[in-house]
Specification:
26% of the residues lie in helices and 19% in strands. Strand 7 and strand 8 form a beta hairpin. Helix 11 runs parallel beside helix 12. It has 2 domains: 123 residues, Immunoglobulins (Immunoglobulin-like, Sandwich); 337 residues, TIM Barrel (Alpha-Beta Barrel). It is built from 12 helices and 17 strands. The protein has an 8-stranded parallel barrel.
C-alpha cells in the first residue's frame, strides 16, 4: 500500500545446512527504554518439538559438531541420542533448547531419538559428506553461485515454513515512543523480530554524495544490518526509489504527466536513464557487499525492488509501464547485479500489492522462476477492511506456487493504519488469515512503526489495548521470533566457494 514516510528440496539436506558455523548469538540489549511498562516474555512453541530442519532420512555432516534444537515447556529436561552418544539440556525460560552432538564418522541407517515430553524418533539418518546436497539446492536459486550462507538461509527458511513463520518489521530501530535501546517487538514479547527490514531509499538518494546526512544514513543502515546478521536475524531490503529525472520523489502523484509517462521506460536498456540506473544498482551492490558479520562473511539479503508494482501510487506502477516492460526491467536488474556486478548474497523477492485474486493475476508481471526466489505480496487493505478470507486466499495462492516451484512464500508487508484498532487485531485478522496448517509462509513483515501522537503503530507497545492479543498471536503455533530462530546461516564450510 501507499506508505507515509518520515525522512525432496531433499529432506536429507535439512540438518546438513544447520551445522558447522555454530549458534549465532541472540540479540541482547541492556538498556530498556523508559515510560512503558515491560510485558512478560513471550513463550514460543510451548508444545515439545524439534526444529523442522530435522526429519526422517536426513544427513548429518560427518566429522562436525552438530547442533540439535527445538522448543518446549521451560524447565523440561531434553536428551538427544544417536550412534552411542547422548546429550542433555534443560529448556530455557524462553521455551528454547539446544544440544551439540560430538563429531561422528560416516554411517547410515541410524536412528536419532529426542526425549522430553514424550519421545520423537527420526529414522534412516545418515552421517556423510553434505556438499553435493548443498550444491543441489544452489542450482534451484536465481544465483547458482550464491554464497554458502545465502543457500543455507534459503533452504532453512523453506524448511521452517513447513511449520513456522518468521515475524519481522521494517526499521525495527524506529520505535513508537522514540525510545532507544530495544525494539518495540522486544518490549512487548521479550524477543526481537526474526527479520530486520531496511530500505535503499536514502542510500541511492541523489543527496548521497559520500558525505553529509545521506551518507551517514548509509553507514547507519549498513551497521544495523550487519549487527542484525551477527545476531541471527534475516535481512530484507525494499527500495523506495527516487524517480530518475528530478530525483525528488517515489510517488507518481508528485510527478508531472510527462515524467510519469517515461520514467520507468527510461531505465530499460537503450533508455535515456539506463546508465543512471546502472549507477544506482552499483550503489546497491556496494552496500550489500559491505553488510558483513564479525566473522567476515557476507550477510544474505532478501532484495525486493519495485514493490507494489500492481498499484499506481509509485512511478513504477502498472499505469506507467506494460507488463513486458516491467518484466524486462526486472530481468535486467537481476542479471546486472548477478552477472555483471557478481553480487552473490542476494535472494530476489517479487512482491505486488494485494490486488490479485488468482494465480494468473498474480503472475501477470512475473518475469519467470529463473529471476525470483521469493514470491510474496503486501497487504494492508484486506486486513483494514476485515477481508480475512480474501487475505487467506491470497496467502494460499502464493504458498501453493512456492511449493510447486521451489520458492519461498512471504507476506512481505502488513499493517493497520490510522483507524481505531480492534483489540483482537493480531489473532482475529493476521492469525485467522494464517490459520490453514497447509500454508507454507516463510516470513511476514509488519511495517515501520509510526510516532506517538499520530495513532499509527504496526506492532503494539506494552500497555496498549492490543498488547495482550499480540502476545497471544506470538505464542501461537506458527509465529517465530529471534529467540526461537537458531543456526539459520550454518553451512558445512564458512568460507567462499571455490567457484566464486
Amino acid at each position: 500500500m501507499n506508505h507515509t514516510f518520515s525522512a525432496d528440496l531433499s529432506a536429507n539436506f535439512a540438518l546438513a545446512l544447520s551445522t558447522a558455523v555454530g549458534l549465532l548469538a541472540v540479540f541482547v540489549q541492556s538498556v530498556r527504554g523508559e515510560g512503558l511498562p515491560p510485558q512478560p516474555p513471550a513463550r514460543h512453541m510451548e508444545a515439545f518439538r524439534v526444529a523442522p530442519v530435522f526429519g526422517d532420512g536426513m544427513v548429518l555432516p560427518r566429522d562436525t559438531a552438530v547442533p540439535v534444537w527445538g522448543w518446549g515447556p521451560a524447565g523440561l529436561k531434553v536428551k538427544v541420542s544417536i550412534a552411542g552418544q547422548g546429550r542433555e539440556a534443560t529448556i530455557a525460560a524462553d521455551g528454547t533448547w539446544q544440544v551439540r552432538l560430538a563429531p561422528m564418522k560416516a554411517a547410515k541407517n541410524l536412528e536419532m531419538k529426542v526425549t522430553g515430553a514424550g519421545a520423537i524418533t527420526f529414522k534412516r539418518v545418515a552421517i556423510a559428506d553434505v556438499k553435493p546436497l548443498l550444491d543441489s539446492v544452489r542450482k534451484g536459486l536465481v544465483d547458482p553461485r550464491a554464497t554458502a550462507e545465502t543457500v543455507a538461509l534459503f533452504h532453512n527458511l523453506k524448511l521452517y515454513s513447513k511449520r513456522n513463520m518468521l515475524v519481522g518489521q521494517q526499521d525495527p530501530d524506529v520505535t513508537y515512543a522514540d525510545q532507544k535501546g530495544e525494539t518495540d517487538i522486544k518490549r512487548t514479547t521479550g524477543s526481537d523480530p526474526a527479520v530486520w527490514g531496511s530500505d535503499f531509499m536514502h542510500i541511492t538518494h541523489a543527496g548521497n554524495t559520500g558525505k553529509g546526512w545521506f551518507h551517514e544514513q548509509e553507514l547507519r543502515i549498513i551497521g544495523l544490518a550487519s549487527a542484525a546478521y551477527d545476531k541471527g536475524m534475516v535481512n530484507i531490503f525494499c527500495w523506495h526509489f527516487q524517480e530518475p529525472y528530478a530525483e525528488k520523489t517515489f510517488y507518481a502523484k508528485d510527478m508531472d504527466k510527462e515524467a510519469r509517462g517515461k520514467a520507468f521506460r527510461s531505465l530499460l536498456p537503450g533508455g535515456e536513464k539506463h546508465e543512471w540506473y546502472k549507477g544506482k544498482l552499483r550503489k546497491v551492490a556496494d552496500v550489500v557487499g559491505n553488510i558483513k558479520g564479525s566473522n567476515g562473511t557476507l550477510s544474505p539479503v532478501i532484495f525486493r525492488p519495485f514493490h507494489e508494482f500492481d498499484g499506481s501510487w509509485f512511478w513504477w506502477g502498472k499505469d506507467y509501464c506494460s507488463s513486458k516492460e516491467f518484466q524486462d526491467c526486472w530481468r535486467f536488474t537481476v542479471t546486472y547485479l548477478r552477472d555483471d556486478l557478481k553480487v552473490r548474497n542476494l535472494l530476489y523477492a517479487f512482491s505486488p500489492d494485494c490486488g490479485f485474486n488468482s494465480e494468473r493475476e498474480y503472475l501477470e508481471r512475473y518475469s519467470g522462476d529463473a529471476y525470483v526466489d521469493v514470491v510474496g505480496f503486501d497487504d494492508y487493505s484486506d486486513f483494514e477492511n476485515n477481508r480475512v478470507a480474501a487475505a487467506a486466499k491470497k496467502l494460499s495462492i502464493i504458498s501453493d506456487y512456492a511449493k510447486k516451484h521451489g520458492k519461498l512464500a512471504a507476506l512481505t508487508e502488513a499493517g493497520y493504519r490510522n483507524k481505531e484498532v480492534p483489540r483482537n487485531l493480531y489473532t482475529g485478522t493476521y492469525g485467522a488469515a494464517l490459520a490453514d496448517p497447509s500454508l507454507e509462509i516463510a516470513f511476514m513483515m509488519f511495517w515501520r512503526q509510526g510516532k506517538q501522537g499520530k495513532s499509527e503503530y504496526f506492532v503494539p507497545v506494552p500497555g496498549c489495548d492490543t498488547a495482550d492479543d499480540f502476545l497471544q498471536f506470538a505464542n501461537g503455533p506458527r509465529p517465530l521470533f529471534l529467540s526461537g530462530l537458531k543456526n539459520v546461516y550454518s553451512v558445512p564450510a564458512s568460507r567462499p566457494l571455490a567457484a566464486e
